[in-house]
From TrEMBL:
SMART domains: DM8. PANTHER family: DAEDALUS ON 3-RELATED, DAEDALUS ON 3-RELATED-RELATED. The gene is LOC108072872. This is Uncharacterized protein. The lineage of its organism: Eukaryota, Metazoa, Ecdysozoa, Arthropoda, Hexapoda. InterPro entries: DUF1091. It comes from the Eukaryota.
Amino acid sequence: MDLKPKISKLCIVAAIVCIFSNWKLKAEAKNNFELQTDNFTCSSEDADYKIIREYRCGLNKNSKRRSWNMEFKLAQPVGEHDFFMKIVLPRASPLKDFVLLDLTTDGCQLLANRNQVPLMRLGRNMMDRFSNFPKQCPFKANISYYIRGFRLDLNSLPAVEMETPVHIEFRYLSKQLRLKWITGYLVARVQRLSEKKRPN
């Protein structure tokens, strides 16, 4: 009797069970954590207001469900630009800080969500829910561009299984004038959900 077909089917079933179990464990792990934002500020080195006309950044007033906001208006259109992002997980001395991401990318490609590393592409998709950023260059002048009520959902990311502080810096850089027209600094922490917030 030829047992190969039966053995092959059993292997496939076993593989599916293993994959599903692993996915379920990761999903449960992610549901046990949340990202709490502690501070969000921004600055600009465009002291003469050649590019940016006005900007403001901050957190909402709800301390239990902190979200962050950024709004800016440009004095002139911005086409070609670079976008920089750095995500650092600080570590106590003598350990070195763990750099999760340190990347400079073409800002127009980021707006259009083309040719991006998966983490950046995921972030751009999430931003659509919270911002009125254009889907292609340029950023236009005299329009209030905003990110409002942004709160990172860890369920959208690979499984997180530890509590840790998180420092994020991002900036927009004009290729033409070589000016960092806005830079954001975010201090947050991944923390375990309280029993009240934990999903059933």
